[in-house]
Specification:
Distance between the termini: 99 Å
Shape: elongated
Radius of gyration: 28 Å
Helix content: 10-25%
CATH topology of one domain: Nucleotidyltransferase, domain 5
Low-confidence stretches: none
Order of helices and strands: HEEEEHEHEE
Strand content: 15-25%
CATH class of one domain: Alpha Beta
């Protein structure tokens, strides 16, 4: 009588993991390309006024943002009047010149300095006095290219 061998190892073969590093790096590069880094954490209320004749600012040149408005929920200890925010902290009007000079130093090349634009993102409930003070400090810092950020809509809805 012949003896038949029974195969006890009927398991599936191991998964080939040779292409796994390629897949991981492909996913890594994908997420590096599509991820947008946040710019600033808003500490103020920033409901922009609406305008119907809006022109989009191309981001070809460096843009520095100055935010103004009353402190947001959770920051009431800083008062209820309109405050100024530079980067991620509350600031005083007198700190604008130092902010502009530090933004100029952070530019990669010297030839971009004349093209630096300061964008004002001011809450629609803010007093215009703070905007006038900001503009005066920007004049003294020789930052003369100013942009006002607004939302798109009817100006009558303000």
């Amino acid at each position: 009588m012949s003896k038949f061998k029974s195969k006890k190892d009927n398991a599936l073969p191991a998964v080939n993991t040779a292409s796994l590093p390629d897949i991981v790096f492909m996913l890594l590069f994908f997420f590096m390309v599509v991820t947008v880094m946040r710019e600033d954490t808003l500490l103020i209320e920033n409901r922009l006024p609406l305008a119907d004749q809006v022109e989009k600012l191309e981001k070809k040149y460096p843009i520095s943002y100055i935010y103004a408005g009353k402190p947001a929920r959770g920051y009431e200890k800083f008062g209820t009047e309109a405050r100024l925010q530079l980067n991620d902290k509350f600031a005083d009007i007198s700190e604008i010149q130092a902010f502009i000079s530090s933004e100029r130093q952070n530019l990669l090349t010297e030839d971009l300095i004349p093209y630096m634009t300061v964008s004002l993102k001011v809450d629609k409930e803010a007093n215009m006095g703070i905007v006038g003070d900001i503009k005066q400090e920007l004049r003294e810092a020789n930052a003369l290219k100013i942009n006002y950020s607004v939302g798109t809509g009817s100006a009558l809805d303000n």
